[in-house]
Write a structure and sequence with these properties.
The chain has about 425 residues and is α/β, with parallel strands linked by helices. The chain contains 20 helices and ten strands. It folds into three domains: about 5-60, no CATH class; about 70-260, Rossmann fold, CATH 3.40.50; about 315-415, Serine Threonine Protein Phosphatase 5, Tetratricopeptide repeat (Alpha Horseshoe), CATH 1.25.40. The radius of gyration is 22 Å and the shape is globular. The two termini are about 40 Å apart. Bound molecules: S-adenosylmethionine (SAM).
Length: about 425
């Protein structure tokens, strides 16, 4: 099938996705098969005007993976941040989940905030995705097994009622979340004058090229309070730090603030060479003290003495270094770990995550090692599929995705 050469740039302009022509062609062929349609040209000419079909095509281009309490440390950190902010200001806290997919992430935020003891009037969650059919599913609040993949499922008893073979989310949680269709690259309609305190933008930036990541992150920054919190996916930290945000260094939370809020005071030249420049002197004193406050807030609650262990494991320490933007130190630590014991799938996987895009070949080797050691390592399969797609090895990427999907189904069956 010959693709209209204008199509990939149009899809890219609408979504920001860095899609190669052949990848788009493959997705379109799959949709034609699924729809049992033979008229490829007709399909291609209507796709940009047909919202529902465009959404289905998009699902083949972006893995629409999500589940409740995915990355619990990030959720716990966001909830604690929001609770403390409300305690200080007394005004309702505004949170944004973008992209929200089928709603698991914003509903998780609402459940976690209720769990901190905040009443309904103390917070509101806005949830945005480009894909309207996903939003419709989110609004229904009815979920199957795949949404319950977290290790700790105690929230299910607190907030869900079984309905047939599914679970219905409690109305009081659903009432906290407002769903809206929107594109991260065109967020004007979200600017209603009130800024967000917390923004979760997880597992979308990885699909963008560097320039589009910059656009997306500057749109998000414009929607946030200057001392608000941004949480991204663990493999998206580097992009966020390249485009205006600074890591808070909270292990496993991938938490950041705007760089202007986090900028440490300029070290004084030694010996003092010149009088301070006007601009530096004009900085309001609060900005200088902000990082200390933010960091204090970001410290995890102290563990009870009986649970205090000998300290973080080398993998936790490497993750902490990576989260803090100290990728080179994290890499050295992981390489030392692997030199001592090559059998640690988790260390190979983390190494692959922290390597920059330019070192994709090394990341691929590390992922293959992780999968050799742990063939059912779901995130390693997804990550490797992405690397193969970017390299144009679409058949291989497709096989990896199928393998990942089988594992996911099995996990769902076991739940
Ligand atoms: C992997 S899901 C992420 C869901 C959730 N944040 C999480 O991490 O569990 C990716 C979502 O990005 C959405 N998406 C793709 N392009 C987008 C865009 N330009 N603007 C907003 N959402 C987009 C897709 O529809 C999909 O639901």
């Amino acid at each position: 099938m010959k693709l209209d050469p204008r199509l990939a740039p149009l899809v890219r302009a609408r979504t920001g996705l860095a899609i190669a022509d052949d990848m788009l062609g493959r997705a379109i062929r799959q949709r034609l098969r699924e729809r049992q349609e033979a008229d490829a040209e007709g399909y291609v000419s209507r796709i940009l005007d047909d919202e529902a079909e465009f959404a289905d095509l998009l699902d083949l281009l972006v893995i629409p993976e999500t589940w409740f309490f995915r990355d619990p440390q990030a959720i716990a950190h966001a909830a604690r941040f929001a609770q403390e902010r409300h305690a200080r200001s007394g005004v309702p806290v505004r949170l944004l989940s973008l992209p929200c997919s089928t709603g698991e992430e914003p509903y998780t935020l609402a459940m976690a905030l209720f769990d901190t003891g905040l009443p309904a009037a103390a917070f509101e969650v806005t949830a945005v995705d480009i894909n309207e059919p996903s939003l419709e599913r989110a609004r229904r609040g009815l979920y199957g097994r795949n949404s319950f993949r977290a290790r700790d499922l105690s929230f299910r008893d607190r907030y869900f009622e079984p309905q047939g073979d599914r679970q219905r989310l409690a109305e009081r949680v659903r009432n906290q979340v407002r769903f809206r269709q929107g594109n991260i690259l065109q967020l004007g309609s979200l600017r209603d004058g009130t800024a967000f305190d917390v923004v979760l933008c997880r597992n979308l930036l990885i699909y963008f090229d560097d320039q589009t990541q910059g656009r997306a992150l500057s749109h998000l920054a414009a929607l946030m309070h200057d001392d608000g919190l941004l949480c991204v996916g663990s493999s998206e930290m580097v992009s966020a730090m390249r485009h205006g945000f600074a890591s808070l260094g909270v292990a496993h939370a991938s938490a950041l603030v705007k760089r202007q809020a986090a900028a440490p005071e300029q070290p004084r030249p030694h010996p003092p060479a010149a009088p301070p420049r006007r601009k530096a002197a004009a900085r309001p004193p609060a900005a200088a003290t902000l990082p200390a406050r933010l960091r204090a807030r970001s410290l995890p609650a102290p563990a009870p003495a009986s649970l205090v262990s000998a300290g973080p494991s080398p993998l936790e320490e490497a993750q902490r270094l990576a989260d803090a933007g100290r990728g080179a130190e994290a890499e050295t630590l992981l390489r030392n770990v692997l030199e001592a014991d090559r059998g640690q799938a988790g260390a190979h996987f983390l190494l692959a995550l922290i390597l920059p895009d330019a070192r994709a070949a090394e990341a691929e080797r590390a992922l293959r090692q992780a999968l050799y050691l742990e063939p059912g390592h779901y995130p390693a399969l997804c990550r490797l599929a992405l690397i193969c797609e970017r390299a144009g090895r679409l058949d291989e990427a497709g096989r990896l995705r199928e393998r990942a999907a089988r594992i996911q189904t099995r996990a769902g069956d076991d739940a």
